[in-house]
Each structure stands twice: as C-alpha cells, then as structure tokens.
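Dear colleagues,

As part of the handover before I leave the project, I'm documenting each prediction I ran so the next person doesn't have to rerun anything. This entry is a single chain, and its sequence is reproduced below.
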Amino acid sequence: MPRPFESFWDLSYRDGSYLEHWEAPEVPEELVAVAAELAAELAAAGRPPGSATALDVGCGAGLEAVHLAGAGFRVIAVDSSRPALELARERAEAAGVALDLRPGSALDLPVATAAIDLALDRGCLHGIDREDRPAYAAEIARVLRPGGRLLLRGAREDDEEQGVLGLAAPELDRLFPAPLFTRGPVIPVHLEARAGSLPGNLVTLTKRG
C-alpha cells in the first residue's frame, strides 16, 4: 500500500516501473569512456588513484554511481527519492562498493563547493522547468572544481507526453555560458530503457579554472 505523501518518483521506485521507463538496461558506453578518460588525465596530472570525486545528480537506483565506484572514483549520489537511494544502497552492497548516498534536490545540492571532478546527469535536468534551470546550473558550477566536467544527457526536444523539456545547444549555452564553461559538441543519442527509447542529446561541459 502506498505510504502517505509519497511522490510519483517514490512510487515508481517502489513498484519497479522506473526499470521500464528511465533506467538504462546497462551502463551507458559514454559514461565508461568519459570516466576512463578523466581517470587517465588525473593520473597524468599526478592525482593518486582514488582521489577523484564524482557526483551523480538524480542517481536513481544507482546504476551509474555503482559503476564509477567500481572504477575507483569516490562517489556522492544524490536523489530526492529515498526509495531510490535505498535501491542504490542495495546495489552498491551487492557490487561490493561504497557510495555516499545523500537525499537532496538538484537545485540545492548537499555537496561542498569545488568538491567534484565529474558530475553526471542522465535525465534529471530535462525534467526541470525552464525557470528553475538557472538554479540547477548555478549549483553545478558551484560544486565542480576548476577543470571539472558535467556529463549531461537529456531529451533532444520538448515532449509533453514524456513530460520533458529539450536540451538543445542554445539552451545549454544559456545555462552554462562561456567563459565559465567550455561546451563540447551536442551529440544526438537515444536514452534507452526497457519500454523504449527517448531521442536525446549528450554533451560534456567543462568548468574553466
């Protein structure tokens, strides 16, 4: 039976429907590539193994956070849904890795300033109203270290049926302007889930020092 005041997200994580509609069926290849590239760069710069910190914004059930922890990152995983965080905890325990799980909002991240080398967002920003997005971007800028990166993936266009707002290049440049950020190319992708896929965009944004 639903608990009092549970959100749509809480209910989705409790009944398993998140698996059908937004969790990737496997760790996305772009995450594997970006994490490996960043780890190599940090090692070349003299950072010891295990010193890099990643942040998963809207971590859900922890698929990507657990992968990063297994790849040697210290991982902070934030979600507004406590049932999601419980699933992430169980997944981390099963994988034998540690996650720093924190309940919180993407608009007010429970993370110290300049603490993060790599931030992840797969499907969080595209669900935030346009008027609230500058607060999200300000929080990302605050928590990233100089040279830190945001791997951002979200809907390509507005989709009322899916309840998402697109992340095209003009919107990204509005939220993450130069010279504070350097934006990589906007790459068309599909955000895969068991029930289908959502046309999306992938971009890496780097905070300048």
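The chain has a mean pLDDT of 94. Residues 29-44 form the longest helix (16 residues).

All the best with the project,
I.
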